[in-house]
Amino acid sequence: MKNVTLDIVLAERIKSFMKRYQLEEQEQLPSNRELAKMFEVQRLTVTAALNRLVNEGVIYAVPRKGYFVSEKKIVRDLVKFESFSEMAKSKGLEISTKSISVRKIKSSKPISRALDILEGTTVYEIKRLRIYKNKPLALEISFIPEHLTKELEKQDLENNSLYDILTRLYGIVLEGASQEITMAMPDREYQSLLEVDSNDALLVLKSIAYTEAGTRIEYSESITRGDRCTFMNVLTREEL
Asked: Is the pTM of this model over 0.85?
């Protein structure tokens, strides 16, 4: 059994303190000295506990100022099939969209395999940046066969849901998706768009969305800042 060290115990007590006194996002915690006195521990233990909470994303440090409550992460539910726009609406989140680019390209081997089309087929590549509280949250890159969605580049993808456009203009109703989560280190494009450093790991949600008939319509990659969003799934045990 793993030993529970004092800093682990203290970290949990600090979290309980934050909850009990309802500390808000961006609100400053008491100083190390005050926390040491409050919990009757050494300041080194306080520092270790606070560093643990920083690593967990519960708080963040500002040099020469102290520790502050982190912004609560957005939780994306993988149990439910929904677009980013639908997720934001259901949670009451004000998330804006910035269209980065919409262009036609020839499908690569991985994209062709994902969409079950011939390599070199013309597809739309759609890049959109999701913004929450004036900060980048995720970069979404979608690939859709061009022959199914003629003149898609003329549509307003900043103020309208892509899935709504597919249904309303092209009669395409997406009923489900297969999904895979991986991690990636940001290249220069991702660093610039998502405002992250080169050593900040990103969560990548890869999805293949399909119709009721099983036709694959969209392959997408949602490159997400792990400090601002997390993914949740629910598993149940099947009866034998």
From this structure: no
